[in-house]
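Archive transcription. Copying these from loose printouts into the bound notebook so they stop getting lost. Printout 1 of 2:
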Amino acid sequence: MEEKLINQFYTAFKNLDAETMVSLYHDDIMFEDPAFGILKGEEAY
């Protein structure tokens, strides 16, 4: 299952398909970057 999810995500990334990428995020996603700080949930979209 994890391999399928990863393949779907990176195929969408390659195809510049942000909508599909976002649909694969977990509800509790957290993203951290020096430029954006910590973003959680819908903030990370």
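Printout 2 of 2:
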Amino acid sequence: MTDGDLEPSSVRGRVFRRRGDTVYIYVLALALSVGTMSLLPVVRYTVLWTALLGVGAVAYLLGGGPRLSDTDPIALAWGLGIALLIGLPLLLVGSVGLAAASRELLPVRDEIAFQMLVFAIPAGETLFFRGIVQEVNGLLFASLAATLWVILLFLPVARIAEYPAVYLVMAMMMALVNFAYSYTRQRHGLAASWLCQVTLGLTLFFVPRLLIS
């Protein structure tokens, strides 16, 4: 891999073609996240992920950026493999902590958490951060932007004052997984990145709920 592999790809779409466009939309998303902190977690998550998915879907349909169809079975296998390479060791050494974090950050029934981790979260974040932001601003910016988004998203339900070290480790883990999603998108395509996020989300935040009662 050369340095050029990590540079923003050429943008051919009719929407969000300039860096300022994507940054402006991202700032609005952060403002919406802050402005909805008083809502119940499930309501807030629904509003935020729907907004993210809506913007990402519009850009995907009208733009000329990466396509989900621009992939192959080998690329999907890479996405799955990267997720398991990161997720399985973390699951083995931290299943108890991951189960507690999952129940705290996603205070819903297990079946609702499953739907969030398989459908809502990967769809919205993949199309927005890997489909729009990364296409224009590059891998590193997209990774950091997605990490900040996740931190703000879960801030109202996180007991940071009680467990600061735990949430520092969680923030570092979120930075790692978001870099993995963006790296997978850069090297293996948007669909592989999507599969990577679905697999890693289930491994880190759903499987521990089942293993640890």
